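Ex. 9. Protein: Lipoprotein-anchoring transpeptidase ErfK/SrfK.
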Amino acid sequence: MKKFIYILILSLFVFYINHLYNGYIQNHTSNYINIQNKVNHKNKYKIFIDINDKRLYLINKSNEKIEKSYIIATGKPSTPSPIGTWTIISKGTWGEGFGTRWMGFNVPWGKYGIHGTNKPYSIGKNLSHGCIRMFNKDIEELYPLIEYGTTVVISGGPYGPFGNGFRVINPGDRGSDVYEIQRLMKKKGYYPGYVNGIYGDEMKYYVIKFRKNNNLTINHSIDNEFYKALGVKLFE
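Predicted structure tokens for Lipoprotein-anchoring transpeptidase ErfK/SrfK:
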């Protein structure tokens, strides 16, 4: 009898786990398909954002001409905007408190996008938490022109993911430069972790290990001696 009850409980448990798993797969696959169904692979436009000039350019893909240009606000030095090439994966209409429109990027280390603002005085400055802010009237004009899957290129200076140059990266930091360091460390066999642009606890262990292996000062910082030992150089 006890054996029968044990088998019954085990069977119910396995059924429950399978039910949860199938529900998870179905839900996430459905979400993925829904996003893919929204992607227009014949998008007319692409977006180029120049962090240094504080400008967003709407470019016609058929002739590479700039059709519109908007002044923007970008991330503070402590919370930089994500340099790189991204894709619009979400859109929405927001309330006035945080601007009237939202268009999100597929950045792996956080939630970033283009949105309006209730702080118009910030436009033209480095004052956001990393997102691209626009005047509400400007993003309301831009919003209907942008499809899911639109390419967004964010340039932050002459040095690619390092923007205007190296910064000292410490635990808790995130950004394009962290992503690039993780990628290079992984490529050279120093980092088996997930490349996500976030300097978390796992990465701290491998930074220390790299420093020991290369006879560097033992600390958690990614600084000039670390960049040099990893072979990272800035080229314009």
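Check your answer against this statement. Confidence is low (pLDDT under 50) at residues 2-36.
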